[in-house]
């Protein structure tokens, strides 16, 4: 499988939501990371053919994707950032509805729905109306509808928004389990969500891909710039002024801080985290 995004730009009136995006995706888990308004959802909408980019091309297995390429569309499972219009459906009815849209036969649908509902711990609420769900329940329902009919390309827009730590871990493990032989794209601004499962991270800012690589490579790339140091509490404002501070811990001896600095100074260098990768490239 090869999904190729080539020179894709998207304009909404004056707003340049995507600016010459290039990506080469094969089997694996991709974290699409960027701040609010950076263009993640827009890129996803172009990839899924929900909207048409202003310029550039997207190809799947060397064929340009569009609404008529149904084989492609059928191989996508999308978890959108939110859904409206289903509040009065029960969870189970919603799942059958989506299964029907995807062309699943009743028997297949039932088998898959039962398995998925169980996997994300929704059995107890699945016969309740969606409007009575908590944010996390809705989120899990949205997640499993994306997996119906076993799609080859799975696209998740902010999948863990509103999940408690237990369900977040559960979801992350599940994504990891199903990722073999698939292209999985996870859009989020929470690095933790993709920390242990993404093979590759795409950093996007103002509609542009600013950096793209394996997590280890990104961490290596900022190694010279991440520092840690014990300082006096009274010096903290000065550090805040000069540097991006990634953490502050108040200890008995003073303030222990981690910060990003453009010059490489060996003595204070620390091992970077992915959060610091975010801070470095995206803020
Ligand atoms: N339908 C639209 N009409 C006009 N502007 C839009 C539309 N959709 C997105 N935009 C603009 O495009 C830019 C990118 O938005 P997008 O929703 O892709 O960001 P995002 O990275 O998904 O953000 P978030 O983290 O908040 O979900 C923003 O400036 C947004 O205001
Ligand atoms: Mg979005």
Automatic annotation (TrEMBL):
Keywords carried by this UniProt record: ATP-binding, Nucleotide-binding, Transport
The name this protein goes by in its record: ABC-2 type transport system ATP-binding protein
GO molecular function: ATP binding; ATP hydrolysis activity
PANTHER family in the cross-refs: ABC TRANSPORTER ATP-BINDING PROTEIN ALBC-RELATED
InterPro entries xref list: AAA+_ATPase, ABC_transporter-like_ATP-bd, ABC_transporter-like_CS, ABC_Transporter_VariousFunc, P-loop_NTPase
Domain ABC transporter: 3-231
PROSITE patterns referenced in this protein's UniProt entry, alphabetically: ABC_TRANSPORTER_1, ABC_TRANSPORTER_2
SUPFAM superfamilies found in the cross-reference section: P-loop containing nucleoside triphosphate hydrolases
Matches recorded under Pfam families: ABC_tran
